[in-house]
Predict the 3D structure of the following.
Amino acid sequence: MTKETSEFWRGNFGAEYIGRNTEFDRELECRAWSAMLKSTEPGSVRSILECGCNIGRNAATLRELLPRAELNLIEVNAEAYRTAVQRINPTLSFNGTIQASSFPEGRFDLVFTCGVLIHIHPDDLEACLKKMFGYSRRYILMGEYFNRTPVSIPYHGAADKLFKRDFGKLFMETFPVRCVDNGFLWGHQYDAGGFDDTTWWLFEKKA
Ligand SMILES: C[S@@+](CC[C@H](N)C(=O)[O-])C[C@H]1O[C@@H](n2cnc3c(N)ncnc32)[C@H](O)[C@@H]1O
């Protein structure tokens, strides 16, 4: 069985996911993003890359919060990518995996994932993190499911498609970054905003 998870997202599962990822409480989405970005230097986030944007719901929220910031997208599912590009009109975009993407080093003030690293096989994870670190000029943000030790749990009945771990610790131990802020979006408060027990970390590259 292949360890690569991108085919899963390119196919029927990805199409079904789009249908589930459309309606969220915009005020809660804005509140969650304001919390995650509250420790960035004011005015410092002028370009953003979302890795694994699906139909662009985070990018749409960020357009509301940071209307002057340039938005850029990576998404592996073709239909989701088309929808996101139409909705967001990004400056740069790539329909493919984070691993296969190729943008200039240090091109974006903020590079982030939200519920994406959890779907990448551990064998491919470091390559993704390396891309994110390389693309960032200053900040990297990850919002993912947390487990202190790495675990693989069934995802909608599929094996080896959902992996939880301490992504923040792994990132800090692998790259020269400092953790600027971190937090938890408790599903009890944020489910309706599309954040179901999301643990997030905001990192800044060391000079
Ligand atoms: C759980 S969804 C989260 C979508 C979006 N970040 C959000 O918060 O609404 C995971 C997304 O990552 C995409 N994806 C999965 N593996 C990927 C990879 N290796 N490279 C780029 N995108 C990927 C999937 O197609 C899907 O759109």
In short: The chain has a mean pLDDT of 95.
